[in-house]
Amino acid sequence: MFQPKRKSVYKVDFAKEFQGIKKGKDDYHAHCIPCKDEINLAAMGKTAIKQHQEKPKHKENAKAAATTRSLSNFMSSRSALTTTDDKTAAAEGAWAFHVATHNQSFSSTDCCSSEALFRTMFSDSDVAKNFSCGQNKTKEFYTTVIEYIDKWFRVELLPTNISWIMLSKKSVDYYEIVEMAEQVAPEIAKLDALFNEVAELNHMLQQIPDEIFGADTAEMKWHKIFKDNDMLPCLYKLVSIILSIQVAKSPVPL
User: Organism's domain of life (predicted)?
Assistant: First the structure.
């Protein structure tokens, strides 16, 4: 008599054997934490986990998760964040940004952290007392952000479809905007409203006197266009995304 094959079930040891794996929605599934996927174990057992972890998608997600963990390892506390913890983390991030922006050596940050310069200068500050951002953490901030930017925004797009954002002339090309939107905000590129907003933008640009148009920077032009104007929500979101991307031109000394 034919005996149906017994279904494989999740075992506690899987969490130790495979990184990022825990019990899934039932006994026949494992949950991949980096991918947020349910892996069906019924037919193949742990072989299904192995196959899942060999997929390019999983490897990319696991790498991103590892990067996030490596940065969190530098944080002063693993307990639930308090107001002081939040402020300290923000101060450390701002400090790392300052170091990168001014092209300072990572090693120069040690005197402010390990030698407690900030704690001495601001002895009555709880943030200063908890501040700890020497060269290792500062470098981790920098490299982590650069990795995210590299995935989020490709510099090779610059010569082709981002010139419109400079508003160097009194008209923008709808198809260039759609091309850019497809890269950084696909949900915007699909909206019919975007066409009408581009037409409205071109009309607004034509109304700007030549002497003012030529004197303003791109940021000033966009500020004037969006100020007290809620008629361009798609363009506002798209421009906000692009202008918020900081790409450093100069190398940071290691």
Answer: Eukaryota
- 23-74 pLDDT, tens per residue? 999 999 999 988 889 999 998 999 999 999 999 889 888 877 665 555 555 5
* Sequence ranges of the domains in the chain: 14-55, 74-152, 155-243
Identify the helix (H) or strand (E) that includes residue 48: helix 46-53
Instruction: Report whether 173 contacts 165 (CB < 8 A).
Output: no
Q: Please say whether the beta carbons of 172 and 198 come within 8 A.
A: yes
| Gap between the Cα atoms of 30 and 89, Å rounded | 34
Is the Cα torsion angle 72, 75, 80, 84 positive or negative in sign? negative
HSE (side-chain half, CA atoms, 13 Å) at 197? 22
Q: Are 154 and 183 in contact (CB under 8 A)?
A: yes
**The one-letter amino acid at 23:** K
Q: How far apart are CA 41 and CA 123, in angstroms?
A: 57
Q: Which residues share a beta bridge with 22?
A: 31
Exposed e or buried b per residue across 63-97, where buried means at least 16 C-beta atoms within 10 angstroms of its C-beta: eeeeeeeeeeebeeeeeeeeeebebbbebbeebbe
Residues 6+ apart with CB under 8 A from 9: 27, 28, 41
- Helix (H/G/I), strand (E/B), else coil: 173: coil
